[in-house]
Design goal:
The chain is built from eight helices and seven strands. It is α/β, with parallel strands linked by helices. Strand 4, helix 5 and strand 5 form a beta-alpha-beta unit. Belongs to the class I-like SAM-binding methyltransferase superfamily. TrmB family.
């Protein structure tokens, strides 16, 4: 049965009651949550025992048997950069991982709304979001060498020294990231906190499986300009005229 646009919008509002009648997208005011979450706490998660147990087709209905998720936005926030990835790389599957329940709900609803609005072109079928703790369960989702790109954009700086162990970049986790990254894969990091930037660079340069891209290489990457304000956090830094600290590393 073919429905007109007004009927589609009405159906969307029934499915997504927090959706704006003007934009057709969910409204963040219904999904507000604390800016940060304790990654060490015992949150309640459903997670696969192994990568082969993941039902990717439930997240990407149009994926082919040959396709795999290749891009991972870790701590994707409200999904701004994830949406940009979907637009830049329509043939690639990108996943956002977010630990905060209301924020991940927002991204799921945002993607559902975008798919509905772009149903005629099958747009945004290549992005999805799951609620999970990447610091604990990343190898449960991805096979060895599966990922081509990983993004850590404006992660929680955990300023207190006692909480530095909670930072998402540390020596133990870098080995896990190297496991799921293919040879030559890239890790993109961006923060507005200089101390955290120095921490990230120091730990990644000490790890034997990464090398930092030089400035020319980083600037040639078409993704680099999008890192500054595609995400909601990045856009806020731009509005506040804050600093950006970028570092991109290659998996050896």
């Amino acid at each position: 049965m073919v429905t007109n646009n007004s009927e589609e919008r009405e159906r969307q509002r029934e499915v997504l009651p927090s959706t704006s009648a003007v934009t057709g997208l969910p409204q963040k005011r219904y999904y507000r949550q604390r800016a940060h979450s304790n990654p060490i706490a015992d949150h309640s998660f459903d997670y696969p025992a192994r990568p082969t147990d993941v039902d990717w087709r439930s997240l990407y209905p149009n994926m082919t048997s040959e396709q795999q998720v290749q891009f991972a936005d870790i701590g994707c926030g409200y999904g701004g950069f994830l949406v940009t990835l979907g637009e830049m790389f329509p043939e690639k599957l990108s996943i956002g991982m977010e630990i905060r329940v209301k924020v991940s709900d927002y991204v799921v609803d945002r993607i559902a709304a975008l798919r509905l609005k772009n149903s005629e072109t099958a747009g945004y079928q290549n992005i999805a979001c799951i609620r999970s703790n990447a610091m604990k369960y990343l190898p449960n989702y991805f096979q060895k060498g599966q990922l081509e790109k990983m993004f850590f954009l404006y992660p929680d700086p955990h300023f207190k020294r006692a909480k530095h162990k909670w930072r998402i970049i540390n020596q133990a986790l870098l080995s896990e990231y190297a496991y799921v990254l293919r040879s030559g894969g890239l890790v993109y990091t961006m923060t507005d906190v200089e101390d955290l930037h120095k921490w990230i660079v120091s730990h990644m340069e000490q790890h034997p499986l990464y090398e930092r891209l030089n400035e020319a290489e980083a600037n040639e990457d078409p993704i680099t300009p999008k890192l500054y304000q595609s995400s909601e956090e990045g856009a806020k830094v731009v509005r506040n005229k804050g600093d950006h600290f970028l570092a991109i590393f290659r998996r050896l």
